[in-house]
## 1
Amino acid sequence: MKCTNNIFICFIIKLPIFKRSLFCLYIIAFLFASTNLNAQQTINGTVLDDQSGEALKNVIVLLKKADVHFHTLQDGSFILKTALLPDSLFISAMGYEQAVYPVDSSHLSFNIRLDRHEIELAQINVTSQRLLTEVMSVDLKMNPVNTSQDFLRKVPGLFIAQHAGGGKAEQIFLRGFDDDHGTDIAVSVDGMPVNMVSHAHGQGYADLHFVIPETVQDIDFGKGAYYADRGDFDTGGYVNLKTYDKVDNSSVKMEGGAFNTIRTLGVFNILNENANQNRRNMYIATEYGYTNGPFDVKQNFNRLNLFLKYNEWLNDKSYLNVQASTFSSNWNASGQIPERAVEEGIISRWGSIDPTEGGNTARTNLLLNYKSFLSDNEKWESMFFYTDYRFCLFSDFTFFLNDPVNGDEIQQKESRNIYGMMNQYAKNFYFKNSKLAWKSGFGFRYDAIGDLELNHVFHRYTLLDNLSSVSVGETNLYAYTSGEWQSGKWTINPALRLDYLIFGVDNKLTGDPVEVAQSVVKARPSPKLNFFYNFNDKYQLYLKSGMGFHSNDARVVVAQNGQNILPYSIGGDLGSVLKPFPSLLLQPTLWYLFLQQEFVYVGDEAVVEPSGRSQRYGVDLSVRFQPLKWFYMDADFDYAHPRFIDNPKGEDYIPLAPIFTSSGGVSVRLNSGLSVGLRYRYMANRPGNEDYSATAKGYFVNDLTLVYPLKKWELSVQIQNLFNVEWREAQFYTETRLQNETVSVSDMCFTPGYPFFLKTGVKYSF
């Protein structure tokens, strides 16, 4: 036999029969090993709470040697693929002991139960997809909050101010923005938007008073406009509060303090223990509060809240959540008072020029959320919501400037219904050395505002002039898609969002320059692109970039024939997350933001004034330190340089925009259960007007909280403004005229911040 055509075959044939057989066995073994080396083994299982048996979502499941990880789904399930076995499976979640399981080809399916453990900073991995939420969980455990407004203060760099008797939405400051009540920050609860478009008191008005603080479990937030599922008002950032799906027991609480302050709370677990095993949960929470405040004119502030939430796993793959909430409140307000009125002794620091300011408001929400896990790698989610809203506010910004006889008090009034829907599809794709998490969504929001009014009134009840009366229909249709590709140490996240807005206005006043029943439409694309590089589990570097937008008031949109409808923003963050050692976490960030059009709301004229282009840049630094399990320190430092672009230098300051802020504190939780927290808030002086000839004064305020649990009881003490400093909570540079003045004066007007305020409470759980 000749072997000239194939040397390899000739070589085998010429071997002795024994060696030929042995060589063939080697070849077969090699092919078998190669087949097994490239064969992907599937590892799956579920992760449950050891005490309750509840499925745990977002648990990190890591194959150590293969360096492949997965986050458990809503039903606690996970699935991983690897060709490298044997290996070790590491399971870790915030608030639970880490578990380790050996994995080999004979053991690929797991039913894992995790033991609960106190949340600590050392548990946090900087590469976690839920990094900010996990850090916030530690913050909330070590520094519990007592009001829905305190949740906003938990966001690093975010400050709030109240200036209308407690019932009005807070003024918000973030990243060089005086956001008014929400113009440049998107606020939501369980995904339901809180911001009000074309609101009677200001575009983006975000009132969180319908939230009962004891029902909030997590705070999700982000700065900048880098998130595909966030739309209108997400220029400076967003905040989403997540309520508890279940409560372990029922409780009642009573609080009382200075200025005739009382607060009662009840949280009641409705279903029995067997319902928990059937994966059904339902609870009701109710809250009532009253206070007169420190002002000469008693606030007489009343608020009643109700909240109900029911959720159930219909089967292993389908989840349903239904919730309803309602609240109503009414109050008196001292308003903003001129500096000169206090300095000249016309009124006290706690006095008012117009004692009839105040208002009332109410909001009822219905929310339905359905989730379906179509497969191990696919999820569909739908949310439907409805809101019925009422608002009436009496304000006096200028006193006797326009009407020297009756004064300038105005009434801002509206009633609306909001209908909305959101749908999202998510799927994970696994490749040999990478993973792609893809999600796309679409939805709409429709605001039907039947009565949107601005009236000139005398002492609330006498109508002097109807300045504006319209009905508005505003629709926001949107769609987005986002991909998160992970390969090695890199994560790349491109995204695109498209919003389409329809503004319709029906004027009810004859002779108004706005024509009857006009409509305007506008679309706004918002691309995003984010990069993350994980050097290791202690150091992450990221670059975020994207466009966002904020919408204008429909009344102004139509009156200006569709100009300045959806001015866009362009921004970027360059930052890192570092854990030089387990008990210390640092997050420094450099950022920049360009805004096509600033908006300034002029409440007594019911218009939003376009104020030109602006830019902001700055530095954020967050520090978290927990050297001991019972000792925790946190601090946030935020510097911003906000300027108008088109104004001459020296006249380009953005009024009331914060320049430097800092907040933080020290918390101690002893083995006895005693918890002590000392916190501070600092805001530096900032410009009161465009040329900085007027100054909004800064402040440094400290608060103290003590909580002591005793079996089923819990005692608490809260002290606001511990050192009783004089400070100004809200400030405005305004042209005003007092009743005894012949000419108007422009100066700073302010609402004084609370003095030393002591409140005690007792809670009983059953």
## 2
Amino acid sequence: MNQPTPAIVAQGAVRRLPRAALLLLCIAYVLPGFLGREPWKSEDMAAFGYMAQLAGGGADWLAPRLAGLPPKVDALLPYWLGAWAMQWAPAWMAADFAARIPFGLLLALTLVATWYASYYLARSPEAQPVAFAFGGEALPPDYARAMADGGLLAFIACLGLAQLSHETTPALAQLCFTALTFFAFAALPNRTLVPVISAVLGLTGLALSGAPTIAALLGSGSAVIYWLDRSPAPTAPRNKALRAGGIALLSLAVALLASWLDLWRWRIELPQPSWAEWRSLGRLLLWFTWPAWPLALWTLWRWRHHLLQGGVPGHHLTLPLWFAAVALGTTLTTASADRSLLLALPALAALAAFALPTLKRSVAALIDWFTLIFFSGWAFTIWVVWIALQTGWPSQPAANMARLAPGFEPSFSLLPFVIAAAATLAWAWLVRWRVGRHRAAIWKSLVLPAGGAALCWLLFMTLLLPPLDFARSYASLVRHSMTLLQQPGCVAAHGLSRGEIAAFQFHGRLDIRPVSPEANCPWLIVNRDALTTLPETVDLANWRWHGSAQHATDRDEAVLIYKRVAPAPR
């Protein structure tokens, strides 16, 4: 027996979110973080190092290496994109900025794919709201557009999206291709050509971005979901077989491509049976996916009777549930839990959108007030810290910043100030609009969460970008080290992380080579944490300690520098 849909939506509740406002929100979220900064430690810098090696012809395009080290993530396409951008960029453009351009486009494509995935999920017959006895229910196109607006707002509002989606790492590429695959399978019952192209690009891109297992799981699981389609339409059996068979063949082809390129790697790390680790994972799940996860859970509860009903069971519920489950399973079984959890956000945002037609007014008001207090408090704090940096008052925030970033010299920049002030005024207007009297819209409960997340990210990347750059860049470590190196030539390295190696190559223009017993470089840089293993690699009788350098804001980030005292072996 078919259960009635829990969505009761009138036509007046699906009014369109102004496209100009939505576009400005996306621009305000995408651009900050890609402009005006240096590569950050450690994954962002390491990925840039591999791109620079490829662009300069110092590495094999099918097996990138950085001072002899392979990437932590067995990806190819993200490094290719950054390297191509550097090769095609004009001479006046900084190499690190050029490498970020394709990743900014990947984030923009992720937003577009998430919107359209939510739209086509809401167009499925099972997702439609209750038909009123005398008419007046929301029309399907308008309802789907309003739900898509809600899904995109929920995606932008997720707290864990901000930093990782603005780094030039394989994680962003995996997020984009996951969202593209999600859109492809969501739109497949309504369209053919664009979803097929998107599915090919999405699954292939996932495999080439270091996630062939995720690509295989998403493809095979989606094929099963479409095979279990119980739509009563006359063409359903034929369409079911075509969709399921096509997705299965595409998944097999992508798996064969990953095998041919030797991209399969199994790095399963099960959580330790300790309360501390499970508590850490629980905290990550709670804050990283906020506010999408409580709304997604509410969706599953209110729509529970529709999970296994006729039609396309996964088209609006099972499909996003499968995508989220794969990402959550990967989060629990890999070392980089946050980067794996990132892939769940498009599906969780789509599920969160289906909670909007069923929210009670009191719950929506609670979301608004919590969001208003949380993000307004953060915005106020950022402004206070910036004023303290510029004027020295209030004294306590100024003292805290001086302690956290010793040696940082603040300066005033007019353009970032104007942008931050305009964004703050826009937030004030948005709050006034939300608490004012206006026609109901089902996406209204996610306007403040998305706007607040974009506001705080923009304030961080304008007002506080200089101290953030100072703290999160390797520049200070390299600068201190270069004062100890005289005419370095090539430099051997022992125990340096991939990010440190890339930083010395980029900021110091050093020729970093892996250390060996036959190392023939006049200088040796050693990570302080790897000092105990140094005698196993080199004969210390041939080297003399010359000095040490550490990061300006991180005392744990330090290196020791040795100078050769014996002739290099021949």
## 3
Amino acid sequence: MATVATVVLGHAAAEADYRSLDPSPVVVEGGVLLCPIARDGDPLPPQEWPRELAVVLEDGREVPGRVGWMVPSPTTGTAGWTECGEPFTIVEQTTDSEALPLLLADLPRGYRGDIDLPAGTVTPRWLRPAPPPGRIPQAGTSRSPDALPDSTHPLEWFRWVLLAERVGDVPPPPPGDEAGRLAARHLAEVWRAAIARIERASPGVAEELRQRLVATCTLVEEVGPEREIAAWIADPRDLRSLLGLAIDDERDAETAMQAVLSWLRGETEVVVWAEESRGEEVVLGVANPGSTEALLRCRWLESDPVPLAVVVPPRTAKTMVLQRPVEDGVSADGGVLVVEHGPHRRRVVFGTRPAPVRPPGASLGPFRRPVTLASLQADSTTTPPADRGGSAELRRRQGRWELFLECLRPPEARRDEVTVRIGDDVSPVAVLRIPERGSVARGDAEVSRVGHEDRWRCRVVLPEAWLAAGLVGRRAPGVGISIERRLTLGDGTVERTAIGTPPPPWRDSAATEVWDLSRWPKGPGEATARDGERSSRRILAP
């Protein structure tokens, strides 16, 4: 007969009842209970909720519990390749009135039964725990940070557990405060139990599932040493879908295994990303973590009927240069490359290059964080927090080309510097480093800066000689411009952001974007200074 436990909520229970928002949370036998809860009665801010709740079993044993809070994951400009893609994390304290309260409790070993809350009974969906690790080590854990899970996010700790099992090692302690650590343990327990359930039906499918969750490959480039990078399933939507199939209690182990296998076969394991857009050519990144070579077919969406075949060796990542179709000096592809791997198709957006600059000016875009594996799989890019954002604009005024920059920065910022590079990334014509404060090695450029309480603005007059020598491409030449920002915060953290195509974190500099300045009207037809000032007044008023 199931043992019944009662949750005792201290003095607050006399004033209000606490109830579960999920009547059947998933829990591993003897594992960590994680249950979203609500408080009936007058609303209270999070800081006035009890921090500790006691789970009392029928035999009188008391199990300490915690109130945790689901809050948005913090966003910085220091994105790593394996940064956790979960939009939420679990913390013990918060002032966010929109945060979701959770009850977390470490249940006694082997416990299985209903749990009574003051406003109702919770009947968990119990999972059989996975057996203790006893697998033969297969390979050593990579030392590359681009091949290791996010060590700061509790909901990514399950990968450390799976990696440790593969190498016969012990995972590092879960990150976060007490609530975060309990949440990390809960998710790891559920994933291990789910894989064990699939393994009872098919050891082969279970091994494939493990591999897809911790897959890495070797990035091989012409210049520089090889490095290991992650290529696992990182999109949190995919992870939730896959986990849901594996633990679905409406399926037996055999049908759950078949559902997981269908999911794995229906989603390609090949990862592709845009590295750089150099006008008439682009640089594409590809990672194949599979055990067999991947044959890819690449074609431009609008004007390339014959695809280019590319072979990527197993467990290998590489970059490749692809030519754009060009007509009359202009890219004729719409900026979208279609990459096919078997029945799977993915669109990689490079944008139309060289992009024309016309009156009143061209927005070069916002500063973006480095690309991450999770953002690639979710087809998203992210900007830094609002208090650390920025943008750039290019225009011609009174016969001279001017670049405008706006950089927002928080009060605790120690140093803020923007690097502007003209020309290609191998042999640039000029590199201009512009700090918010301090001297600037200007060369022939004119630089003006204006500081404000929460931001600073910069105007750079680009010498014609730089632009004439900074052309990139032969069939469709344009001026190559690269803009990168490094913001040093009060704790010494350096946040990197860039204009244009977000680079992967292991790139030392921002990607070069190519712009066609020949489309700006010349002579009497050129835009007036007033037109240009109106477009950029918000950026700089020196």
